[in-house]
Every structure is written in structure tokens, then in C-alpha cells.
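[stage:ingest] chain + small molecule (beta-D-mannopyranose)
[stage:ingest] validated
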Amino acid sequence: MNLPDNPSHNQYIKRYEGNPILTKEHVPYPVETVHNAGMVKHNDRYIMLFRSHRRNGRSIIGIAESIDGFRFTVHDKPFVTPAKEGVFAQYEEYGVEDPRICAIDGEYLITYSAYSRYGVRIVLAKTYDFRQLERVALISQTDMRNVVIFPQKFNGQYVRLDRPHSHIAPWSIWISYSPDLIHWGHSKIVMRPLQYHWDEMKIGPGATPIKTKYGWLHIYHGVFSTMSGGIYRLGVALHDLNNPSKILGVADDWILQPEDPWEVAGYVSNVVFTCGAIAEDDGSVKIYWGGADQVMCMGMAQIDVMVNLCLNNPRLPI
Ligand code: BMA
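[stage:predict] done
[stage:export] C-alpha cells:
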């Protein structure tokens, strides 16, 4: 395998000099934050579905678009607000959060967290054009978050990663399968936090996995607990191309940690959290993250450098 050496630390991701790329000032309706955005390219435009807190502390999802991936324009109206009737209304009462987008078979699948007095569940919605949104189903029971669907079927099955809560085991990444996107099963754990490691407290799926010739590159988040709260960082794992339940390597190093002032302090301090990244044809990847749960930031990385981190200096996945 002909992969480049790792660059020196802190250069895995080159932050965009215009960060933060989106703040509440860019939003034409009242919100207090702009963060944790799902990303996809649609008709040569970068589409960003971002989460915003309203002043009541509950979240909605807005939409912005860009022709270059750096400068975004926010649409006049939010894209997802809590449903007002039917089964979705019951479970979205406290807000909708942290969307991920999966482009598959000519449609866009959107998974987001629905919060209510009953806990957090995952809603699957669909769009073809980012104008109309159709809610399809609630695809988890309570206390499941960070659902990312692979943008390809495996043996006729959809595959997703997610992160259940457990008071016994540390919060880990699981995989599940579905023939129809509605019924999910054959669940199995694929990756756990590692003790006394930067991700030791909990981990969760981040961006929709990116297909590379070496495997599926998954940018995930991990949390380390300190006396002044948790620190959210990003790391990378590589899943087998044909069997994504098999992990080929998890990089020992984090690839991004809170460093800029708007990542170190904000609505929730010391957080970088990703829900989306876009692979470009030239081998680079644009990674988007929420800074301190308050602003959107982005940076560029080389896909083969990320792959190399997973394969050449890995830590144990389980
Ligand atoms: C997680 C989620 C994310 C958030 C992060 C840091 O548990 O709620 O939406 O970005 O905490 O606050």
C-alpha cells in the first residue's frame, strides 16, 4: 500500500482561515447557536443541515447551501422543526438535533435525534431535492443517538452505525442491518472507548462513512472526562469495504481537538463535533464540525493520510 507518511501533529486537518464559517448572525430567523451539521453535495452545491438552539433551549434544523463549500447562504426558513401532529409530534416535542445525510439510490436519507419527555429516539426522513421532507419512521427505541447510514447496501441490506446508552458498558459504537430501512437488527458492537485514551469516556459515530479504496473511513467523536468537564475530539476508524462490521484500524491519535477560541468556549465549551464530511475527487476531504455547540467550522484533510493513521498507528477497536 502506497500511503504517505503522517504529517506532524496538528496538521492532520488544516483549519479554514475563514472559520467559523457559519454563526447565528447568518441565520435570518432567531436562533442562539449554529452547529453539528449534516453535509452532502447535491446538484454541485454543498448542502448543510445545521442544528440551532432556539432561545427556549430546544433545537431545530436549518438549511444552508454553498457553491464552494466555504461560504454558505442560509435559507429563509428552517428545514426541520418539531412535528406538530401524529406519532412524530409525540417524540419531537423537545426538539430535533444532530442530522446526518446519506445519499443512496437517488435519494437523501436524513437521520436526526428526536427529543421528548420519553427520551431520545432517531427519526429517519427522506428528501430528493432539499425542499420537501418526508418523515419515514422512528427507527430506534429510546436512548440511541448518532445514527449514520452507509451510502451503499451490503448484500441487499442497509447498514448503520449508532451509539446506545448503557450504564454498564461505556458508550460504544454498534452496527445494525435492515432490508427496508424500517426494521433493524443483527446488531453487534464494533468499537469501544479505550481506557485512559482521549476517547475513554464515550464514543459515537460522526460523519457518514466515506468510501476509499482501502475501506470505509469513519470520522467519529470521542470524549475524555476532566475535572472541568468533557473534552470532545474527533478520531478516525477504517471499516472493511465489504464487511463494515470488521474494523481494519482505529487511529491512536485524535485528528482534531478544540483549539480555536470558538471551539474552546461557547454554548458548551471544549467541543468539536462532526455530523458530516465531503470527499472531493482530488483525494481531499472537507470536514465540518460544530465548535463549542455554537458555530460551524470546517477544515481540509487528505483521505490517504487519515487512512494511514488508522492502519499504521492503530489502537484496539474493542
Ligand atoms: C452530545 C450531543 C451533541 C453535542 C455534544 C456536546 O451529547 O448532545 O449534540 O454537540 O454532546 O455538547
